[in-house]
Write a structure and sequence with these properties.
The structure holds 2 protein chains of 2 kinds. By secondary structure, chain A is of the alpha+beta class. Chain A has 16 helices and 10 strands. Chain A has helices at 10-17, 27-41, 43-71, 109-118, 155-158, 171-176, 185-192, 242-247, 265-271, 286-305, 320-326, 332-362, 364-372, 377-413, 426-452, 456-462, and strands at 82-87, 123-135, 144-151, 163-166, 180-183, 201-204, 207-215, 238-241, 278-282, 315-319. Chain A has a 6-stranded mixed β-barrel with strand order 2-3-8-5-7-6. In chain A, a hairpin with an 8-residue loop joins strand 2 (123-135) and strand 3. In chain A, helix 2 packs across helix 14, helix 3 packs antiparallel against helix 12 and helix 12 (332-362) runs parallel beside helix 15. The two termini of chain A are 20 Å apart. In chain B, helix 1 (5-36) packs across helix 9 and helix 2 runs antiparallel to helix 5. Chain B folds into 2 domains: 2-37 and 267-394, no CATH class; 57-248, no CATH class. Chain B is elongated and about 100 Å long. In chain B, the strands form 3 sheets. A 6-stranded mixed beta barrel of chain B has the order 3-4-10-7-9-8. The chains are: A alpha+beta, B alpha+beta. Chains A and B meet through helix 3, strand 2, helix 9, helix 12 and helix 14 of A and helix 1 and helix 7 of B.
């Protein structure tokens, strides 16, 4: 580590001598060049610093990117207008310790029907997921099972589902339990080779269904409206009227929780207190949300009056962000990884700070000469700051490379659910570089301050 | 050291933070390894699971299922087979409350609810430690919305102990999914539930299972097949061919229990690898930080060291000087680190469903940090010791 010697050679004195003459406008480039030169002089130390910052940033950004992908707002334009109502249809002491708020995340058929009928929101839909056999038109192809979402027509405008061809089925289709479907873009590619299939027929569960619309590319991540079914994985391929699915006894593939035993059969399930349906409403304004809260309480009170509930109303209304938080969409593993990564970054920065201190103080003599030749404290400070900035920038860029590597590792190590769409975008890249430069400069403040306070006389005497 | 207060403080803080994260990460890694190594109780190596889904609706589902199962049992290389509703490590399944009295406000226990016939114990390779197996005439067909008709349950040892701590569970009536009391007729050593999540409510009753004498009749059947030792993969292929020969109008998927286990703990293993990698990197970075700063101190003290050498200090004395200095810094860092590790753990337990740390982990971490410091300081210290005494007299 030859760089630790603090002797001053004539070349450097010459360099420093130019400081006083430097034109202020080109100061930055000059400092930048000085910074680069000084970094080159101490390759090992500089390398260690950059490596420390790079691994810190790499680990942090890997965890942060996964976290951002998983905790992002899936529908930012409407997340404050979509709400999941909850109500206690079991009674206060019937919930297990998994529901400390004495509410279940889903509703019973009876309540969904009641709330749909009341029509108290701008739009509303009850829904559930089922799996049905899809038979291709070509008999040589094997049948497959696909996820089918049973919902009401409001589903599509509520969640801003984009249509490529056609549109949602009508409200009268809902009432008529019509055999119509909306299919995804991918499903349309698979079944119809991407052509406009509106009006064509598909065979689902051995019955013909008419395509009323084809969705365009639509990604909701996480799929907040039903978190029980692979919220980050492939999801619903086909949508059909809820009323039709109920009519055809299409079983639920999500979770079903029952307080007591249902009567046997499909009708028993419908009459039971089992909660197995998701229910969402759209409320445009805060006032609407307030009114809906009151309506929910009234509904529960009414059920109490009817003798169905033997307890006072207990309801809740959460919007999308609150819902994602409430349902712990981001697994605790990912949060622990975030925490550990930031701890790691902290250590890396402290490390870089120590090394920077060593480096800058190792050049105390150099700085002393420059000060003696007329460089102001501010000039020294600026020069060192830019130097640390260069280190931070280099660390950030290498960190980005490591982040890409880390994400690749995370994708192959963790389940698909964990890293569904964790990829680096421009925002992440910006965050990484800013974080690296910002944190490094911050960490470099103390060493820089120390450098600016080098006593020129004392240093020169020591030489 | 006083002259390098800030540098020493940086190293000590670094060591403290490293120690805190190391101890906590180690705790988590240990817990997840232990969690994913738990035996399911089955002879997993020889077992595979077949999912068969009907494409059309039939009214004779029970007969079709019976045909399948009989064909599987008759297949060469098959030890046994049965129809189940779920299997261990599946990730989700039937969970019931288990009670000692009807209409209980809070359940006595939670348990996984497996269905199977008289072949279930043999197929899964469960060890019956008390009572008896189901008899063929006890087993009934049921759909998932039928009223249960069971006349006897088989439970796991863990569940039996939870329900009847005095150890007299056999023959006692319990309530599972209905208001009718049903006696425990057998106790098996171990059978894990289908849930694999390591935290939360479901992780608290992983070994509680009830086996009821039911054959689940459905359009989506799950068959569990046990092959003769060493023949699993071949049998899996012939079993698929056999079922398709019976009726190819179905969607058939088979998976070995080995694969089920790998899939179930992919996340846990990923976390273990990532945390271990970060911890290793932490240690390396900290070590390099120590090397860097100590090297700087060595450079700074060249003259001082030269004088000491000239005055008769041995090379060993110089090495010891830096080692002692590092030890003092590391000791301060370790002490702070132990406190920080415990505080961090307590906070994480509260907000992240983290496991409680065994405090010896923090002490173990402290020893690692002290050793790391000594190891890292060795190289710069040796360089310092090699400074010739003459250098000091010549001046910087």
């Amino acid at each position: 580590m030859a760089g630790f010697e603090s002797s001053v050679n004539s070349a450097r004195v010459g360099n420093a001598g130019r400081v006083g003459a430097a034109v202020p406008s080109s100061m930055f480039t000059y400092y930048f060049r000085l910074g680069l030169r000084s970094l080159r002089r101490n390759m090992v130390l500089t390398g260690l610093m950059i490596a420390a910052i790079a691994v810190g940033i790499g680990a942090c950004m890997t965890a942060l990117t996964v976290f951002r992908a998983m905790s992002g707002d899936p529908i930012p334009q409407k997340s404050a207008q979509l709400f999941a109502p909850q109500l206690d249809n079991w009674g206060p002491d019937q919930h297990n310790s998994g529901s400390p708020d004495r509410l279940e995340p889903q509703l019973s058929y009876t309540d969904v029907l009641g709330l749909m009928k009341a029509h108290a929101a701008k739009r509303q839909t009850g829904m559930y997921a089922t799996r049905q056999a899809l038979r291709p038109a070509n008999p040589a192809q094997k049948p497959s099972k696909v996820f089918v979402r049973a919902a009401f027509t409001d589903f599509f405008p509520m969640f801003d589902a984009p249509f490529k061809y056609g549109g949602p089925w009508s409200a009268s289709d809902d009432e008529a339990r019509a055999a119509v479907v909306v299919i995804t873009h991918d499903m349309n590619d698979k079944l119809f080779g991407g052509a406009n299939s509106v009006g064509k027929s598909i065979r689902l569960d051995n019955e013909p269904y008419t395509v009323s619309g084809v969705l365009d590319d639509w990604r909701l991540l996480p799929r907040f409206y039903d978190l029980a079914i692979r919220p980050f994985g492939d999801g619903d391929a086909i949508f059909m009227p809820f009323t039709r699915a109920i009519d055809k006894h299409m079983g639920n593939v999500g979770s079903t929780d029952c307080k007591s035993d249902a009567e046997p059969g499909w009708d028993g399930r419908l009459r039971s207190d089992c909660v197995w349906l998701q229910f969402w409403v759209e409320l445009s304004t805060e006032a609407d949300a307030r009114r809906y809260r009151a309506f929910l309480n009234n509904y529960a009170a009414e059920q109490q009056n009817l003798g169905r509930f033997h307890w006072p109303p207990h309801t809740q209304l959460r919007d999308v962000r609150q819902w994602l938080h409430y349902r712990h969409v981001v697994p605790s593993e990912v949060r622990i990884l975030i925490l550990v990564s930031f701890g790691f970054l902290l250590v890396c920065l402290m490390n870089a700070m120590g090394l920077m201190l060593a480096k800058i103080m190792g050049r105390a003599g150099d700085i002393g000469v420059r000060r003696a030749l007329g460089a102001s404290r501010r000039a020294i400070f600026a020069q060192c700051l830019i130097e640390t900035g260069v280190v931070g920038l280099a660390g950030g860029l290498f960190g980005l490379l490591l982040t890409a590597l880390g994400l690749w590792a995370a994708r192959s190590l963790l389940t698909k659910e964990f890293v569904a769409l964790a990829h680096l975008d421009w925002t992440d890249t910006g965050i990484a570089v800013l974080l690296a430069v910002g944190a490094t400069v911050l960490a470099g403040l103390y060493p820089t301050w120390r450098a600016a306070h080098v006593q020129p006389a004392w240093q020169l005497k020591a030489q | 050291m006083r002259r390098n207060k800030f540098g020493a403080f940086l190293i000590a803080t670094q060591m403290a933070v490293t120690l805190a994260f190391l101890a906590n990460a180690l705790t988590l890694v240990e817990q997840r390894i232990a969690w994913s190594d738990r035996p399911s109780g089955m002879e997993e190596r020889d077992i595979f699971v077949m999912h068969t889904e009907m494409v059309e609706h039939f009214s004779d589902l029970a007969a079709r299922q019976a045909t399948d199962i009989e064909a599987l049992r008759a297949l060469p290389g098959v030890a046994d087979a049965f129809t189940t509703n779920m299997y261990p490590l599946e990730g989700g399944g039937w969970i019931e409350t288990v009670n000692l009295t009807p209409d209980q406000k809070s359940p006595t226990a939670f348990g996984a609810h497996y269905m199977g016939d008289e072949h279930a114990l043999h197929t899964m390779g469960l060890k019956l430690i008390a009572g008896r197996n189901f008899s063929a005439d006890e087993v009934a067909n049921r759909t998932d919305s039928d009223e249960p008709q069971a006349s006897g349950f088989i439970v796991t040892k863990t569940l039996a102990a939870k329900l009847f701590p005095n150890g007299d569970a056999l023959g006692k009536p319990i309530f599972v999914e209905n208001v009718k009391p049903v006696p425990i007729i057998g106790i098996v050593d171990r059978l894990q539930g289908p849930m694999t999540i390591a935290t939360g409510l479901y992780s608290t009753f992983a070994e509680n299972s009830v086996l009821t004498p039911d054959r689940l009749i459905s359009e989506h059947n799950v068959y569990m097949v046990r092959a003769l030792p060493g023949q699993r993969d071949a049998v899996m292929k012939s079993a698929e061919a056999k079922l398709l020969a019976i009726d190819d109008n179905r969607i058939l998927n088979s998976i070995s229990m080995e694969q089920v286990r790998a899939d179930a703990y992919r996340g846990a293993h990923g976390l273990i690898v990532l945390l271990s990698a970060i911890c290793t990197a932490l240690l390396v970075v900290t070590a390099f930080g120590i090397i860097g700063l100590t090297s700087y101190w060595v450079a700074q003290r060249r003259q001082q060291i030269g004088i000491r050498r000239a005055l008769g200090a041995t090379r060993q004395a110089i090495v010891r000087y830096f080692q002692t200095e590092n030890f003092m810094i590391a000791a301060a860092g370790a002490a702070a680190g132990i406190a920080f590790a415990i505080a961090l753990n307590l906070w994480m337990v509260r907000s992240f469903e983290m496991v409680r740390m065994d405090n010896t982990r923090a002490i173990g971490g402290a020893i690692v940090i002290l050793l790391l410091g000594q190891f890292a300081v060795l190289w710069p210290a040796l360089r310092a010791a090699s400074i010739p005494p003459a250098l000091a007299t010549r001046g910087g």
